[in-house]
Amino acid sequence: MQVQAIQLPPVPVMEWVRFAESVGLPPDVIRGMLDKEHLPSIKIGKRRFVNLVLLTQMCLAEAGE
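The structure corresponding to this sequence follows.
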């Protein structure tokens, strides 16, 4: 039996503008996805961050379907 390890991001959240840069999409596109709740996010203080842990879980769940 092979055990598959899940590697989580080193930081559980990322500022949405930096996330846009890392995935190669314009910031306006990511902002729209956050506003429409297509990407999981968390608000810390006045800032909105992409929840990378939840996004990873969503991707793994979709891949397993």
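Residues 23-63 form one domain.
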